[in-house]
Specification:
The complex is a heterodimer of chains A (314) and B (302).
Chain A (H helix, E strand, L loop, with lengths): L1 H35 L4 H6 L7 H40 L4 H26 L1 H8 L5 H11 L7 E2 L6 E2 L4 H14 L2 H34 L3 H13 L14 E2 L2 E2 L15 H6 L8 H17 L13
Antiparallel strand pairs in A: 1-2, 3-4
Chain B lengths: L1 H7 L4 H22 L9 H10 L3 H4 L2 E3 H9 L6 H23 L3 H29 L3 E3 L3 H22 L7 H9 L2 H34 L3 H13 L6 H5 L6 H10 L3 H7 L2 H23 L6
Antiparallel strand pairs in B: 1-2
Helix pairs in contact in B: 6-7, 7-8, 7-9, 10-11, 10-13, 13-15
The chains are: A mainly alpha (314), B mainly alpha (302).
Chain lengths: 314, 302
């Protein structure tokens, strides 16, 4: 009797499941198509939306507003990074004409705005994605979609426009380096770029050290193993690894090493160490970016607010 | 930090529900048609029993069962004494393997080191078991002042147990004291060198993690960075590397800030501009502010 009842239920539920599944698949296709053409956050709001129903337009505008409000909140934090970079510009360039100073600060402030908007977009990514999916059942299957639909926010690119990166600092270095090229001598602009490149190398070294020191605490590495793993990390570097400087996390006692390929570690371990070595890197690309931005924010929280150097506004 | 992220993430539920209200209604209706509750199975007996017990749950909210608390607070991550014991012994045996890898131990030397490691684990786990026996089967009533006082005592004991477990194989351990005695002169000199390199690596990693923050906040040039880093490397702090770099590594920047506060301030000030000096001062103040906590947690060994 119980089995018969289960069979009847299965028969009744099956058509509904089929409808849900077909809707899900069409939704995935729609989402993927929408994400193929990446739209800048600022442009998204102004963009005309043909066939958009009034309630959809209202929801979209509400979300745009929420994102902008959140971005304003983050902007103050990102400006702390800007103050540091402007100090470096001043150290490298010395005296600068008033107009140049103002133009450089404007470029930096715009970079702070862009970075903040980027973070807010990443933060509201799931809601944005649900709005982009053009079928009405996304609420029910939203969690499933999260797992199988690629992220809406694409990666930031480096100054050479080629290699994707997760590093929020890039907004400032790229904007200020570009502005310096336009407003000060090329020699000073080059020196600033050299300083930024050196800083990036220092941060890489610090992150590699943090990863290896964490592995060492867990696996008792020898000096030779530490050296080999560190070398391997630097050779296979990805910007996600910068996260190690801001602190690593654990999930159920297992350490998360974002962006760290197994090949950097396992070949250099003994058999027993390999058996003990547990790692997780379950974050997808967009989650990784969001995490990276958030960790940078947390790092900035430790830095107290400072007044901008008045010299720049003279 | 994770909590911060979670709290900032807006709930998606409302959005999901608005969009999916129609289909959700359809699914609910179909399930009603099939005869609720959905997905009814053998486990439902347990679920139903739990539902019945919910009525009295309000009263039990302030009653804390310590057996469960001990497992989660003492053995973070593994939540099980046997797994914790195993993790502990595995960690120390890895240390013995490292000595073997670097110095080439004889069977007898290895056996002595392994025995010392096992004794370390037995000693710590005996202490932990004593605390566990003290609280086994007990429930604390947080509504009463006596219960609250007992909860405080329990918390203190839990912190002490955690410290014992995370300081596995530290400088005071039997293993650390046995190793030099077991090794011959050549091996001892090799192992001492290896240990120095490890300490240096751990300290260098702490310095670099802290300098990364300083670098960005102050806008240091490469020359300024190298000069300050050099000063920090000249005056290393005694740290518990296993704890500093174990689990989460949120402490290194704070330890570095504290180390900055111990440097010659006039030398330090001479390296930075007047504007940078102000921000540097804030970092140093933060380092001094957290020093007691770092020492209390035995992250800094002073």
């Amino acid at each position: 009797m119980k089995i018969a009842s289960q069979v009847v239920r299965m028969i009744l539920i099956a058509p509904i499941a089929a409808v849900v599944l077909s809707g899900l698949m069409s939704g995935v296709a729609a989402t993927q198509a929408a994400e193929l053409a990446e739209v800048k956050p600022e442009a998204r709001e102004a963009e005309a939306k043909p066939n958009e129903r009034p309630e959809e337009a209202e929801r979209r505008q509400q979300l745009d507003l929420q994102i902008k409000q959140q971005a304003v909140h983050w902007e103050q934090q990102f400006k702390k990074l800007l103050h540091g970079d402007l100090e470096l510009v001043r150290a490298v360039c010395g005296d600068l004409p008033r107009e140049s100073r103002r133009a450089i600060v404007r470029a930096g402030e715009q970079a702070a705005k862009d970075a903040s908007l980027r973070l807010a977009e990443l933060q509201f990514r799931d809601q944005r994605r649900q709005q982009q999916v053009a079928f009405p059942w996304q609420g029910v299957v939203g969690d499933v979609l999260k797992k199988i639909v690629p992220p809406a926010a694409g990666p930031v690119t480096t100054t050479d426009g080629e290699k994707p990166t997760d590093d929020p600092l890039l907004f400032f270095s790229a904007a200020l380096a570009q502005s310096l090229k336009e407003h000060v001598g090329s020699e000073q602009a080059e020196e600033f770029s050299r300083q930024l490149a050196a800083r990036s190398e220092r941060r890489k070294a610090a992150a590699a050290h943090a990863i290896v020191a964490s592995l060492d605490a867990e696996l008792c590495l020898t000096a030779a193993q530490r050296e080999k793993i560190e070398q391997s990390i630097l050779e296979r570097w990805s910007d996600s690894m910068f996260m190690a400087i801001q602190g690593m996390h654990t999930n159920n006692g297992v350490r998360i090493f974002p962006g760290l390929p197994d090949e950097c570690v396992r070949p250099h371990l003994t058999r027993t160490q390999r058996e003990r070595f547990q790692r997780q890197d379950f974050l997808g690309d967009a989650s990784l970016q969001r995490q990276f931005f958030m960790q940078t924010m947390n790092m900035l929280n430790a830095v107290q607010e400072s007044k901008p150097d008045p010299w720049w506004a003279e | 930090m994770m909590q911060g992220i979670a709290s900032m993430k807006p709930s998606g539920l409302a959005v999901c529900w608005r969009g999916g209200a129609g289909i959700a209604l359809l699914v609910i209706l179909s399930l009603l048609l099939c005869g609720c509750p959905p997905l009814h199975g053998e486990d439902d007996t347990v679920v139903d029993a739990a539902t019945r017990q919910k009525a009295g749950q309000g009263e039990q909210l302030q009653q804390i069962g310590l057996d469960q608390q001990m497992n989660s607070m003492f053995f973070q991550g593994v939540r099980n004494p046997e797994l914790a014991r195993q993790k502990f012994i595995d960690r120390l045996l890895l240390e013995v393997l490292a000595v073997d890898e670097v110095c080439g131990l004889t069977d007898q030397q290895r056996l002595k080191c392994e025995t010392a490691a096992r004794l370390d684990v037995a000693r710590v786990m005996d202490d932990v078991d004593a605390v566990r026996r003290r609280y086994a089967g007990r429930t604390i009533d947080l509504n009463s002042p006596a219960g609250q006082a007992e909860w405080q005592r329990f918390h203190q004991d839990a912190t002490a147990v955690q410290a014992k477990l995370t300081s596995a194989g530290d400088a005071t351990s039997l293993l650390k004291r046995v190793i030099p005695g077991v090794l011959d002169d050549t091996q001892r000199s090799v192992w001492e060198r290896e240990s120095e390199l490890r300490l240096r690596y751990q300290w260098q990693s702490v310095v670099e993690a802290g300098m990364s923050q300083l670098d960005l906040a102050l806008g240091l040039t490469a020359e300024q960075h190298d000069a300050i880093r050099g000063m920090l490397m000249e005056q290393p702090l005694r740290i518990n590397g296993g704890m500093v770099w174990g689990q989460t590594n949120h402490y290194p920047p704070h330890i570095c800030k504290y180390a900055l506060s111990r440097l010659d301030r006039s030398r330090l000030d001479a390296l930075v501009s007047k504007r940078q000096r102000k921000m540097l001062g804030q970092f140093i103040d933060q380092g001094q502010g957290i020093a007691d906590y770092l020492k209390q947690q035995k992250l800094i060994l002073e």
